[in-house]
Design brief:
Elements (H helix, E strand, L loop, with lengths): L16 E4 L6 E5 L2 H10 L6 E4 L13
């Protein structure tokens, strides 16, 4: 699976499952659970969506340099 560019995903999707179009160019649906996102994608006519879980916005990243 290719890594998606999470910088371009709106914060409203943080912590949720999102469904991408088959070509992975646009978000077609989201849900709190994978089945919810799948059903939402199918409801808008996306027959072969690609799914990702979006990281929560409260994640901490710690780094150090020498």
């Amino acid at each position: 699976m290719e890594q998606q560019d999470y910088i371009n995903i709106p914060r409203d999707f943080a912590g949720k499952w999102i469904a991408w179009s088959h070509d992975r160019r646009r978000i077609v649906a989201c849900g709190a659970t994978l089945p919810e996102a799948r059903n939402a994608a199918l409801a808008v006519g996306e027959s072969d969506p690609v799914f990702d879980k979006v990281p929560r916005t409260n994640a901490w990243f710690v780094g150090a340099g020498l």
